[in-house]
Amino acid sequence: MTHTDESVLSAVGVSAGYGSGSRSRSVLHDVNVAVPRGGTMGIVGESGSGKSTLAQVLVGRLTPTRGVVRLDGTDVRRLSRRERFAARRRIQLVPQDPYSSLDPRMSVERTLAEAIDPRGRLRAGAHRERITELLESVALDGSAAKRLPHEFSGGQRQRIVIARALAVRPEVIIADEVTSSLDTSVQAEILELLLDLRERLGLTYVFITHDLAIAQYMCTDLSVLYLGTVVEQGTTDVLTRPAHPYTELLRDSRPDPSGRSTPAAAGGLATEDAADPASPPSGCVFHPRCRYGPRTHEDRTRCAVEPPNLADLLPSRERRAACHYPIKAVIQDEEGP
């Protein structure tokens, strides 16, 4: 997970934001993410953590202010115009709201035809076989091609958006909260569809979600974002045995099986709201909400002054945390008795 030479897509030292001059707003700060080929990299974190901004950077819709995005190890900025066009087609985004991403005046057939042939070089009807194939791949009948978006349910519209992403035969799908607007039963259907497509088509996913249960079910690797900074990375084991206090806070705050939210205080953590992403705290960005470093160690100012590096907890393990005082139980478990 941490080795970019094995990754199809990676962000290296990426900082990004919106606006310019006095109205600029920084969102991502020195983010490093490597997406393993054929796997699913989950991006988790609270609202405002920078998850969707990272998606926009990875798909090429937002240019980083610093750092690079690499595809197969190559900086995409060094590609020619033609190569950049081809690279964009290899990475496709499935957005959160399927209805707002579909033109309500366009039939499904026209939507998919434009995705297949955006320059309209082929004659009308030349794409019918491919359109039927795409619809069937997402478990929709070919007759759906003639209908408009409003004639479908939310789950069916999400299937259409997935079919549109598949139209150019991409290698990487960036799924940004793709089930958050769907009913629970429909969520399960979409997740199963995505898993099936990953196996059948050999896809690689970047899966952005606030739902830790879904992340644990869908993902092979995880990156935890807080205020635009990666604070922990590893396999899905990150969520069951966190090394960073923020990951522990996420784990302890998720709903229990009865549907009630478990108070973060049960995990011994402060429950203050996150700071403004555009003006993160000095030092460790999580230190105002954390009890471990600032309140229990002799050097009480370190967390407030010195930003921690995202570092391997153990040289032989693919677990990284940006914390001066990572949760000791995790390290002890890794080291053994």
TrEMBL record:
Positions of region (Disordered): 242-280
Which Gene3D superfamilies does the record match to this protein?
P-loop containing nucleotide triphosphate hydrolases
Annotated protein name in UniProt:
Dipeptide/oligopeptide/nickel ABC transporter ATP-binding protein
Domain ABC transporter intervals: 9-252
Q: Which UniProt keywords apply?
A: ATP-binding, Nucleotide-binding, Transport
Family, as annotated: Belongs to the ABC transporter superfamily.
Statement: the UniProt record of this protein carries the keyword Nucleotide-binding: yes
- What SUPFAM superfamilies does the entry give? P-loop containing nucleoside triphosphate hydrolases
Family annotation (PROSITE patterns): ABC_TRANSPORTER_1, ABC_TRANSPORTER_2
> What GO biological process terms does the UniProt entry carry, in alphabetical order?
peptide transport; transmembrane transport
Reading the lineage from the top rank, the first entry is Bacteria
InterPro entries, alphabetically? AAA+_ATPase, ABC_transp_ATP-bind, ABC_transporter-like_ATP-bd, ABC_transporter-like_CS, Oligopep_ABC_C, P-loop_NTPase
